[in-house]
Amino acid sequence: MSAETPSDRGQILLIVLVALAFIASLVMLFTDSDGALKLALLAALWAAILGAFLVFRYRRDAEATRAELDHREELHRAELAATASSTSTEVDTRDSEVLADIQRELSLLRAQLEDLAGREFGYEPAALRAEARRDPRDRGRRPPCHRPLGPR
């Protein structure tokens, strides 16, 4: 009903070869006939040779499957990296658009607030400001002498 795959046929052939080698070993043990010994030896040798070919084929198939798996993993990683970079680019674009919208709204709100308050609001950084002014009464005086702070 279902077609056998090459792997199934190889498994069946391997089982047959092991059975043939086992039967050949029994024949060699229990018979004293030279003809039967020669046939059993030939059957065991052929079973070993065909088994070696099957092992070689299975190993080659396993290596090909592993190489295909590695290739697919590499493709998957590349797709993930491309998706992540395109997603981050889209997010950056959306973020910059939202930021531009917020800045436009903020400038409109500032203009409305300036109109309502009747004065202009300039940009002042969030830092301390200090002013130094000279007292006009101190023009003729000299600053006091400072001694160096340290050991003499």
From TrEMBL:
Q: Which UniProt keywords apply?
A: Membrane, Transmembrane, Transmembrane helix
The regions listed as transmembrane in this protein's record are 12-30, 36-56
Name one matching Pfam family. DUF6779
> Region (Disordered) spans which residues?
128-152
This protein is called DUF6779 domain-containing protein
Domain DUF6779 stretches: 37-134
- Tell me the organism: Corynebacterium suedekumii
Q: Which residues form a coiled coil?
A: none
